[in-house]
Amino acid sequence: MIRLAIAAVTRADAEDLLRFEAQNRAYFESQINARTPDYYSLQGVTEAIEAAIDDAFDDKGYQYLLREPSGHLIGRVNLRAVQRAHYHSAVLGYRIAQHETGKGYATEAVRLVLDVAFGRLDLKRIEADARSDNAASLAVLRRNGFVQYGLSRKSFELNGEWFDRFHFERHALG
Description:
- It contains five helices and seven strands; from the N terminus they run E-H-H-H-E-E-E-H-E-H-E-E.
- By secondary structure, the chain is α+β, with helices and mostly antiparallel strands.
- It has a single domain, classed as Aminopeptidase (3-Layer(aba) Sandwich).
- A seven-stranded mixed sheet has the order 1-2-3-4-5-7-6, sandwiched between helices.
- Helix 1 crosses helix 3.
- The two termini are 25 Å apart.
């Protein structure tokens, strides 16, 4: 059963996206490095959306919003660092609102963006990484057919603490 809709971020999403990011800021910053403070303004989010639109036009990256059928924004999923020549690959990232975690939305979001990546975008390989202590994210990747191919030790620093990361890949079928 499809519970989410995925759509490319647009200029019309600025206020909704700012609200989403501000409401979840502390939660996200407990997991990943903080955005610059100027991001958390309508101008900051609008500039980020413009950059995302430019990246999509230039085939460098794609940012999508995840919404429930009611239209409520519950997360983001993106493909960045697109490489066409010789690789046909991108790097996956996603974030789900704190109060929406544990409901299967991240798994569904990744499935939806993989359909786009291997379909319309004609990519052949998607990479992802997750902190070794992030059991939920590791499970999301594995449920979506990602296979671990590496480990980088003490490769991510957050608030003065270093973390190991597992590296994953998923290939288009066929």
